[in-house]
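Risk register update: the risk of archive-format incompatibility is retired. Evidence:
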Amino acid sequence: MGKTPKPLRFLVSPALAEWPECAALQERGHTVLLYDFDSQDMGVDVVMAPNAWRMDAQHRKYLPQAIAAARKVRYPKERL
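Archived output:
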């Protein structure tokens, strides 16, 4: 896999940090941050946590859709 031209920032629960998808995201050039509850940095595009909507182990297949939706928000098309 190559580097992505539109990198995103992921805030990931330590409980999910061992997912192979997290390592693959980093290899592609995305920023993967482990969160703690004292962190105030919410300038992220995708939050992955056990209680997050569609981000538990049963919904891992939705990660590509979450990435696509976050890109639409972060990199909107210019309107003429």
